[in-house]
């Protein structure tokens, strides 16, 4: 027997361990060369693990196991051909030898299958119609206080017919067979059962990084509010033309990203990060966009936002969001980022204090837009307002710097012509 050992490959410089999230092939299945056999969940992404040879798959690790790089995951018996998984393989000698034994174990004449009597209808496999009364049957059962659960349906796919309901009313079931819905409901309402489930690797990584950010940075948050009247007018006036030309809508994220990138280029401290006793400055703005996925929050960056056009930013964000929700983001697509934007407003958040995305030094929190009365030139007017929050690392960003940054972003958004003209 020739066996190939499948071990966890080297995935990235900073990844020392992965979790076997799920098997894609069954234990004992025949697998082809390069066919994905399982999925690994790393700190940053979910990766498929392809077979390194063709043959019979033999599990070594189990779903949910944490595996170090180089750990044994499975074995592949390459002496087994495609017939080993039940497929026809007449050319395989092993199949020919086993064939007589299988014939001996199988009775020559199958035992007679009992036929149902005329009085007893054959059992009907359950489906969506099984046990459901027709409208006429439901009316009869309701008027006579008979539960559909105790009626045997003889209609198509097990549906309860009018005749079935009439028979049930004429021959009511014994009290023992009648369910007690009140007691069942009472028990369910006072259930005290618990369950335990292992945290996913991504969730554990998120938890670890959030705690690290709270413990290792001098994090503060400053707030401001922005009037989005002009932004909304801009989008309404040019949205149709924008979509016709670029095939994507002009959203808030590209406008906010572009405004932040412009101010980041003017205020390098907010775009910098601490590395030991040194400060690393960036002459570009790689803005990480927080994306919610079923497995947790991911923050892949859009590179060089300061140099991109609005439609290019929108297309980049859309592509990253699709990949994030499909779990197909690569490690390279998750790397980097000099500043982060998170939009809690899509979930209805009115105000929050976002946590830093280490090693970055600042993060902007967007929130829900609300129509509020505002004093404009001595008059009260209703305006679409949004609260902005900037969390920052006070070790590198002074309070005055953080406030100035947020004010500059606010001014660009309230007068988007300046943003478009790069003024």
Layout of helices and strands:
Elements: E1 3-7, E2 17-23, E3 30-31, E4 36-41, E5 46-50, E6 55-59, E7 66-68, E8 72-77, H1 93-105, H2 135-143, H3 162-170, H4 181-189, H5 201-216, E9 219-227, H6 229-246, H7 252-266, E10 273-275, E11 278-280, E12 287-289, E13 291-293, E14 296-298, E15 301-302, H8 310-326, H9 331-334, E16 339-343, E17 362-366, E18 370-376, E19 379-393, H10 399-414, H11 416-420
Parallel strand pairs: 12-16, 16-17
Antiparallel strand pairs: 1-8, 2-4, 2-7, 3-6, 4-5, 6-8, 9-19, 10-11, 12-15, 13-14, 17-19, 18-19
In brief, what are we looking at here?
This protein is 31% helix and 23% strand. The chain has 423 residues and is of the alpha+beta class. The strands form five sheets. Strands 9, 12, 15, 16, 17, 18 and 19 form a seven-stranded mixed beta sheet that branches. Strands 1-8-6-3 form a four-stranded antiparallel beta sheet, with no helix packed on it. Strands 5-4-2-7 form a four-stranded antiparallel beta sheet, with no helix packed on it.
């Amino acid at each position: 027997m020739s066996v190939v050992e499948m071990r966890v490959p080297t995935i990235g410089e900073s990844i020392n361990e992965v979790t076997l999230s799920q098997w894609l092939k069954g234990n004992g299945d025949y697998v082809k060369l390069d066919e994905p056999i399982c999925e690994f969940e790393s700190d940053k992404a979910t990766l498929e693990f392809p077979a390194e040879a063709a043959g019979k798959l033999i599990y070594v690790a189990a779903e949910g196991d944490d595996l170090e790089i180089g750990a044994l995951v499975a074995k592949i018996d390459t002496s087994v051909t495609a017939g080993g998984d039940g497929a026809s393989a007449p050319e395989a000698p092993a199949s020919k030898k086993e064939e007589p034994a299988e014939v001996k174990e199988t009775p020559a004449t199958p035992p007679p299958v009992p036929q149902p009597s005329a009085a007893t209808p054959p059992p009907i496999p359950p489906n969506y119609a099984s046990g459901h009364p027709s409208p006429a049957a439901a009316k009869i059962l309701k008027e006579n206080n008979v539960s559909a659960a105790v009626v045997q349906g003889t209609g198509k796919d097990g549906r309860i017919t009018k005749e079935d309901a009439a028979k049930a009313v004429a021959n009511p079931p014994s009290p023992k067979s009648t369910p007690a819905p009140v007691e069942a409901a009472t028990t369910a309402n006072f259930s005290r059962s618990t369950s335990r489930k292992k945290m996913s690797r991504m969730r554990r990584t998120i938890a670890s990084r959030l705690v690290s950010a709270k413990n290792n940075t001098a994090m503060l948050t400053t707030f401001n509010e922005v009037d989005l009247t002009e932004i909304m007018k801009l989008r309404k006036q040019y949205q149709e033309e924008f979509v016709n030309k670029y095939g994507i809508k002009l959203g808030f994220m590209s406008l906010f990203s572009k405004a932040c990138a412009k101010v980041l280029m003017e205020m390098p401290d907010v775009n910098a990060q601490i590395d030991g006793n040194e400060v690393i400055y960036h002459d570009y703005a790689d803005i990480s966009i927080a994306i919610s996925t079923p497995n947790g929050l991911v923050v892949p960056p859009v590179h060089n936002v300061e140099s991109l056009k609005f439609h290019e930013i929108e297309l980049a964000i859309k592509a990253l969001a699709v990949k994030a929700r499909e779990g197909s983001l690569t490690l390279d697509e998750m790397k980097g980022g000099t500043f982060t934007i998170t939009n809690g407003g899509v979930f209805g958040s009115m105000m929050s204090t976002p946590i830093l995305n280490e090693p970055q030094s600042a993060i902007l929190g967007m929130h829900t837009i609300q129509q509020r009365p505002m004093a404009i030139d001595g008059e009260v007017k209703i305006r679409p307002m949004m609260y902005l929050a900037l969390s920052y690392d006070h070790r590198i960003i002074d309070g005055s710097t953080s406030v100035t940054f947020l004010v500059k972003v606010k001014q660009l958004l309230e007068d988007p012509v300046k943003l478009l003209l790069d003024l």
